[in-house]
């Protein structure tokens, strides 16, 4: 019973962590584009989708459907690294695009 509670708590904490990152990305994209002097990009507007689709959706599916096998720690860390890479890459591509527009 205690192990089941710890596993559930770990899954809920992962879900809350992913929700926080998704909210931060959405707010960051909105604020950045507000102060970007009219330069808009799909990379920044849709940056929140990477943690949403790569973090929240799989976590919710694992909580709802108990038949989905649990992933081990290495696979989970690699998956999270991939989501972080896509999210940061999206932000950096927008920042580089913004700098190119300002220079020319």
What would you note in describing this structure?
With 104 residues, the protein is an all-alpha fold. The chain has one domain. The chain contains four helices and no strands. It has helices at residues 2-34, 42-45, 49-64, 73-103. Helix 1 runs antiparallel to helix 3 and helix 3 packs antiparallel against helix 4. The longest helix is centred in the N-terminal third of the chain and has 33 residues, at 2-34. It is elongated. The termini are far apart. The relative contact order is 0.14. The mean pLDDT is 82.
Mean pLDDT: 82
Which sequence of SSEs, written as H and E, runs from N to C?
Answer: HHHH
Count of alpha/pi helices: 4
| Structural class label | mainly alpha
Show unreliable segments. Answer: none
Number of strands: 0
What is the percentage of strand-forming residues?
A: under 5%
**Which value, in Å, is the CA radius of gyration?**
17 Å
The end-to-end distance, rounded to whole angstroms, is: 63 Å
Instruction: Kindly give the count of domains.
Output: 1
Topology:
Blueprint: H1 2-34, H2 42-45, H3 49-64, H4 73-103
Task: Name the features.
104 residues; mainly alpha
Short description, anyone?
With 104 residues, the chain is an all-alpha fold.
């Amino acid at each position: 019973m205690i192990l089941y509670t710890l596993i559930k708590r770990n899954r809920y904490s992962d879900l809350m962590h992913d929700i926080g990152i998704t909210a931060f990305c959405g707010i960051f994209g909105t604020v950045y584009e507000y102060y970007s002097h009219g330069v808009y990009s799909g990379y920044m507007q849709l940056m929140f989708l990477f943690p949403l689709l790569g973090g929240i959706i799989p976590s919710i599916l694992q909580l709802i459907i108990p038949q989905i096998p649990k992933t081990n720690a290495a696979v989970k860390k690699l998956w999270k690294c991939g989501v972080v890479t896509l999210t940061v890459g999206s932000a950096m591509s927008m920042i580089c695009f913004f700098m190119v527009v300002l220079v020319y």
